[in-house]
Design a protein that fits this description.
It comes from Geodia barretti. With about 120 residues, the protein is an all-alpha fold.
Amino acid sequence: MFVLQDEVLTVFEKVGLGSDEACNIVVGDSCSKGYDPWHQKWSVPIPGDKPPVTHHSPEPGSPVTGVLHITDIHYDPLYTPGLTRDCGEPLCCRPPNAQGKAKLCHVEQEKQTVL
């Protein structure tokens, strides 16, 4: 059983997706050709004019704070440094992908960083 089955079905229901649309989103083009939300032109109307951009500079001598913003965090327990990252599969850098001559996996974060 799919762990998030109830949550996913609730989202599909609230968004108003039928079985063909939901199947196309989850499975892809092999499911149906009726609806593909990823290749639609989207338009979001925003009322009013865009407000002017205002730049604010801190007062001289005011305290300075640094911010580290990290996004797209994931941990892949099968990640293996040194394997090819251009393997033609949905997930590379994991066995049994052989080492390539270029584009090797070496810039992933360790589990300790994510946790």
